[in-house]
Structures are given as C-alpha cells and as structure tokens.
Amino acid sequence: MSEKLAPEKRHSFIHNGLSFFPLFLHLDVLLFGVCDFKVYFFVVIFFFFSGEKVFEWDQTLEEVNIYINLPPNVHFKQFYCKIQSKHIEVGIKGNPPYLNHDLFSPVKTDSSFWTLEDDIMHITLQKRDKGQTWSSPILGQGQLDPHSTDLEQKRLMLQRFQEENPGFDFSQAQFTGSCPDPRTFMGGIRSD
Predict the structure, then answer these.
(1) Which helix H or strand E contains 146, and what residues bound it?
(2) Residue 185 dihedral angles phi and psi, to the nearest 5°
(3) What is the rounded distance in angstroms from the CA atom of residue 102 to the CA atom of residue 138?
(4) Out of 13, 108, 165, 191, which could bridge 126 as a Cys pair, Cβ 3.0 to 4.6 Å?
(5) Beta strands at 107-117 and 99-102: parallel, antiparallel or unpaired
C-alpha cells in the first residue's frame, strides 16, 4: 500500500450547495504533483457547502481517502457510513444524510472501510481500477481543473514507477508534456 499524503498536501474543493449539518464535514485538501520545472506544486481547491468545508481527500494508486471532521457533542456510535460500489452515504443516525452521492468511479466494497479517530471520520475507498486518477471522490462535484488533474496523474505515475522498481529513486523524476495514464502505460499495472 502506498503512503497517504500529509494533511497539508491533501485536496480541497469548492461547491455552492446546501448543507444539512454545517459543522459536520470539513474539506481542506491539497494536491501534490511534479511539474516540468522540477518544482513541487501544492494546489489548494476548497469544496464547501454553504460556506463550510465538507471534507479533505487524497489518493494513492490503490485507494481514495476521505477525511471528515466530526461535529462536537455527538456520540461516535451515532455516525454511520454506507459504502456501495458506486455510491457513498455518510451522516448521523436519525438525520438526513450529510453526504449522499455517487462516487467518481466504482470501488471494491469488500476492502473499503471507515474508522473514527480523534474526531475525524476516515473513509478508505479501494479503487476497483488500480492506478486510475480520480479528479474528485464525488461524481460531478469539486472536480480538479485539467492542470491539477495532470499534476495528480504525474504523482501517481511516479508512485507506480517506485512501486514497480523499489531499488530506484524517482524523487527527482519529471515528466515533460502530458503524463501517460498510470493505469495503462506500458501494458498496464502489473497484478500481484
């Protein structure tokens, strides 16, 4: 399993929607990628519902991680998360769901899960298609712009190279022009 991004490097998204629980979720995501000038870019995009942050997210070759700041004074047993192949629902029992959206792409439900720790709900979605670059966890909302998606694809491609060639150091590697798809480049990702 690849390392997750540090909190300051997660992705953030902005959305002009409505919120059922304005204090429930926070999004403060930062995108990490390599540019053509050997400079690291940290792109910040915020995803809000009615001015409140919704969640943070990052991705590796194999999974998408969503981090939700939980509201105070709600017992941890009141929270729920339903993960389906193409849909996610998150909320507090007895209330309308806070998130009730289709996912960007299908996930493996048997290896996707959620945990609560330190007032944060961490949802790990196992990608059905390893190496696929997600432009957002939620279908049609908070999409990364094409440049940010390209930077994310480059980061995942370098992650793939490192995974397939553990004796090599790709930390200074760069791509010029657009990056190939990490999922299909040179015959695709090797299966374990």
Answers:
(1) helix 146-164
(2) -60, 135
(3) 6
(4) 108
(5) unpaired
